[in-house]
Write a structure and sequence with these properties.
Length: 154
């Protein structure tokens, strides 16, 4: 009878040790996953805007002008549209929001027209004719010391 009780105690201790090991292994795994997620940047793909100065002669006095922005460190240039609406300067991406073709500006109709599927936008980039559902992307513009800078995500 006493031997049976000792055997039961040994089994119970063995079972408790196993359960404690399992519990601590589980807790260690959770903490290591949490630790790894805290070490990772919040959104590694998120890019910040880099601002590029627009030379004064490229800024339209009125209406729409297509300009190149030289990205010196990447040795490439990007085309954007600058719009002077009389009150402010707007910078628009030329990329159609339907499937990514480059839009052209038509001075006669004062519209951006996509050559791929005939999408149209007004001079502020708002959709006039489908298939695009979203307006042309506006790029941030800031003015510092009377100079205009446009933000581009590279
Ligand atoms: S890509 Fe411009 S309308 Fe389709």
């Amino acid at each position: 009878m006493i031997i049976d009780k000792e055997k039961m105690d040994i089994k119970r201790r063995f079972f408790l040790k196993k359960m404690l090991k399992l519990f601590f292994t589980f807790v260690a795994l959770i903490f290591s996953f949490l630790g790894l997620s805290l070490l990772k940047p919040a959104n590694p793909k998120k890019k910040e805007y880099s601002y590029y100065e627009i030379p004064e002669d490229k800024i339209p006095k009125e209406g729409v002008k297509k300009i190149n922005i030289e990205i010196g460190n990447l040795q490439k240039s990007l085309k954007i549209y600058l719009v002077n609406d009389g009150d402010s300067i707007i910078a628009l991406s030329p990329v159609c929001t339907h499937l990514g073709c480059f839009v052209n500006f038509d001075k006669n109709s004062n519209e951006f027209i996509c050559p791929c599927h005939g999408g149209k936008y007004d001079s502020e980039g708002k959709v006039l004719k489908c298939p695009p559902k979203e307006p042309l992307q506006r790029l941030p513009v800031k003015i510092e010391n009377k100079k205009i800078f446009v933000g581009i995500k590279i």
